[in-house]
Amino acid sequence: MSTIASFGFWSFVGIVAGIYTLFALGVQVQFGYAGLLNFGQVAFMGIGAYTMAILVVKEDLNMWLAAGCGIVLAILAALLLGLPTLRLRADYFAITTIAFSEILRYVATNEDRLTGGSQGTINLAGIGQASQYDGAWQSFLGKVERNLHVGSDAAMLILVWTVALLAVAAVTLLMRTPWGRVLKSIREDEDAATSLGKNVFLYKLQALALGAALGALAGVFYAWQFSFFSPDDFAPLITFFAWMIVILGGLGRAWTVPVGAVVFGVIFAGTRFFDFPPFSLLDSTERAYVRLIVIGLVIIGLMLFRPQGIFGSRKEMVLE
Amino acid sequence: MSTAILEVQDVVRRFGGLRAVDEASFHVDEGSITALIGPNGAGKSTLFNVISGFLSAERGTVQFEGRRIDRAPAHRIAQRGLVRTFQVPRALTRMSVLDNVLLAATRHPGERLNELVLHPGRARSRERRARERAAELLALFRLDTHAGEYAGVLSGGQRKLLDFARVLMAEPRLVLLDEPMAGVNPALGRQLVEHVLRLRTETGMTFLFVEHDLDIVMEASDRVIVMNEGHVIATGTPAEIRGDQRVVDAYLGTARAT
Amino acid sequence: MFMQLLANGLVTGSVIALAAAGVSIVYGILRLVNFAYGDYMTFGAFTAVYFNVTLELPIVIATLLAMLATALLSVAFELVLWRPLRARNAGFMSLFLVSVGLALVLRHVIYLVAGPQSRTYTVDPYKVYVIGSARLSGAQGIAIVVAAVGIVLVGILIARTGVGRMMRALADDLPLAAVAGVRTSRVILAAWIVSGLLAGLAGVLAGLVQTSFDPQLGFTLLLPIFAAVILGGIGNVYGALVGGLTLGLVMELSTWPELHGGVDPTYKPVVAFGALILVLLLRPQGLFGRARVV
After folding, report:
1. ipTM of model
2. pTM for this predicted structure
3. At what angle do helices A178-188 and B120-140 cross, to 10 degrees?
4. Rounded Cα gap, residues B112 and B119, in angstroms
């Protein structure tokens, strides 16, 4: 049982926070910057993870290539989703995105031969056969460990956060370009942007695709971290976590996402250590419920008392 | 002899069974300042929306500079040089005043992802030129001191000026002004009229505006188009319109649909 | 086979229709997409379990009490959450997100209090209704009849009562109604009460129809319910009713073997979503919604 001071435990929290940074960054791009209500982000995470795993195990493809394919496929899926649905009004769009992620989850659960079904990737190569997809990753991780003289947890932590912070930096720079300016204007007032000659639909599509790519990248890291996953790992709840992170940090600012992710990680993991009443009276399943109740209350509390998030400005809220 | 920069022919547009625009036809001369007037519910705003592409016409055609635009999407029409404002100024409140104006820059490679990646130099130089022009426009409208602030802090009158600066940044050839004087104090109104007149003289820009303030209309416009119940009932110079009995009847509500 | 699927479709459809009406009533007036609605239903279902199984009250009494309890819950949230948020001019986004948070809280409080195990109501499991070639269990039969009655009552409420008229007025134009002297806060409260009653009823019916259920009951139905609401044109209660019945029928009938072997029954929700997306592509405002104006 991990103690509150154990490095292994907190580095695990850190790794999850890093993965969620990438994942929530996608939502930040889509909603924080472009104003899109994508509630199906977890679908892209699943596409990234499953595509890589399936291509490696079933087609014997090079793992790095397979990971790239996962990201490309997520982008294509985003385009497929966005083309018919981005013209819908915001709330309808939101619901179709949830429907989209649920459809994919259903397919992943039921198409046993393709995805291993509800049992997950353990089943990918058929019953009784080994289905490892991250062999190449493990050896790469080993190399990093040896070169940096760190353990596997630390190596993973460093790798995830390097990529995550690079992504945050890239998004920040991108949003300072004229392209980013148009995106922000779409969030503010689509009609005004249209009246100035901007093809709003095209920009929305690009934002959705970019967010999807980030989600898929998070999915690939998720797959590497856990070595095994199943469709239930990609339930709508995960998307809501990303939304909480983005709102917690503050909308429209990429660099607040890692902070939000770390806070989320701490809330999520820290509740394990509440060894005082009334929490000490609960068993671990019940603590899991409490954790989700806390997350829900945080979301409600944020919207009630600090909708601009930790780093947002009150002014911006007022101007909305 | 002036050529028509805008030709509207027999446009029909309904809203829930009612014909908001009912076979409206008129033209706007290039380089003119034309007013579109009429009592409430005459269909002026709907027509504006149809011309600028925000609504589709069920029947009829709209031609801009000789090319049909009635089937074109709104952003394409704006790119071709037909730019409009909205009744309530659409300042992008959570963006800076400068960004608001920069947004209107036309043919900016930096706004396209592929160009950003492949030709960053072109994007940079276009952005430089855009910033210079934006600074000029902001200075012209005395908004330069607010350039870095959120547009949301501007007063109503300043937002109207910002709207105008933005429209000009887009270097349009035809500007559709939707009730530019609404909610504007007389001093500011005067400023706007002067800007419009100057622009017309210096650049040959054409203006079509919807307005309820008939004094401004009489004073500033070359030609007036009068609408009632969805169609055009009279066109002419301000003097001709003033004396036209049909127009008086329309405003007094004594006109019957013919 | 077809008759059986038709009957099943009517059962599923009526439950969805009732719930969709409840969502629509609130959405129409407040423009609030209540993501916690599924969990309001679960609350109703579990409260009925308490009355019916623990206190051993007849299912009808238990249902009525559960409906009341859900209505009270609904009103409580309006007073504690939604009204303060509206007073702060919270936008549609904030409200949606709060409802997401609320859904999480409500569902897991139910998990905490009631536990994750499946529940069943104490009703006669052997009663079967036979209509033509269709067989309906006692629970399914009750569900159709009750839902039908509920649907008719909702229809009458909206169309003929003073309260219903005011709700429609508010749904049409809230600021105008306020200016015209309608006591908006009272009507809004009435809307939440009706919404809560319907949620409770739909929750119990869903539990009856599924025979056994756990705290995920409402949430799993939420998307088909939203699909029905959108299908019917958001804010339009009659549309929601039609949308619900349509979706229920589409879902069940899609598994008909005559249709190229039929869809795998586990994919029924996918069919519902697919139908929704298809309709939205062809008619973005839904079957009965009004077209958008710039």
Report:
1. 0.90
2. 0.89
3. 50
4. 10
- Asked if B54's CB is within 8 angstroms of C293's CB, the reply is no
Answer whether A170 touches C (CB < 8 Å).
Answer: no
What residues in B contact C294, CB-CB < 8 Å? Answer: 49, 54-55
Say whether C294 and B49 touch across the interface (CB within 8 A). yes
Q: What is the CATH number of domain B4-85+172-252?
A: 3.40.50.300
**Residues in B 1-30 with any Cβ partner in C closer than 8 A:** 15-16
CB of B49 less than 8 A from some CB of A: no
Model confidence over B192-208: pLDDT tens digits? 888 888 888 888 899 99
Among C9, C74, C75, C39, which Cα is nearest to C228's? C9
Convert the pLDDT of each residue in A44-74 to its tens digit.
Answer: 999 999 999 999 888 888 889 999 999 999 9
In chain B, residues 31-70 whose CB comes closer than 8 Å to chain C? 49, 54-55
Q: CA B41 from chain center: how many Å?
A: 19
CATH 3.40.50.300 in chain B, residue ranges: 4-85+172-252
Chain A residues whose C-beta sits inside 8 Å of any chain B C-beta: 177-179, 181-182, 184-185, 188-189, 191-200, 206, 252, 315-316, 318-320
Interface of C with B in 51-90 (CB under 8 A): none
Query: What tens digit of pLDDT does each residue of A87-125 get?
Result: 888 878 888 898 899 999 988 988 888 888 888 888 777
Cis bond before residue B186 (omega within 30° of 0): no
B103 has a chain A CB within 8 A of its CB:
yes
